[in-house]
Structures are given as structure tokens and as C-alpha cells.
Amino acid sequence: MSRVPCPSCGSSNVFTYDKPISAGGGYSPNLLPGLGGFFGGAKVEVVVCADCGLLRQFASEEARQKLRGGAKRWTRER
Q: Which tens digits make up the pLDDT trace of 22-75?
């Protein structure tokens, strides 16, 4: 999936953090419950447009594999 151009403003001034970060848990909300490991939350890739500020998060491949495998409490939209 291409991250450029920005879907909001069309800018090519788009940046991605250099490594995936935790999708939460602990003192912050867990954005992908049940899709992380035993000792940590699932990871997300963070992308931000420097022109309009649109912030996007993309679930890691490991989290998406758990969804495709039938993760508990996640329902596929029809």
C-alpha cells in the first residue's frame, strides 16, 4: 500500500517513523486488543503528512495475520 501521496491533501511531504511502535496498553488505550503478544501490544506503522497533519496508523503484518486467523472478539465487516 502506497503511503504517498497524502489521501487528505495530495502532498508528497509524508513521513513514516523508522520502526513500528506499540499500539498501546499499559497506561494508554490498547488500539488493537488481542492482536499483540503475551508481553506486549500489537505494533503499528505511523505515517504523518507534514503539510496537513493527517496521522495514519497501519497494523503490523503480525497483527493482521491474527485477524485473518480468526482473532477472538474481532468480527469481519460484511
A: 988 678 888 898 898 877 789 999 999 999 999 999 999 999 999 999 888 999
Boundaries of domain holding 49: 14-68
Contacts of 6 (CB under 8 A, 6+ apart): 12, 13, 14, 49, 51, 52, 54
The answer to whether residue 77 is domain-embedded is no
Q: Is residue 30 part of a domain?
A: yes
Task: Report the DSSP pairing between strands 14-16 and 43-49.
Answer: antiparallel
Residue 24: inside a domain: yes
Any domain includes 7 = no
The pTM is what?
0.80
Q: Which alpha helices (H) appear in 1-78, and where do they start and end? A: 61-68
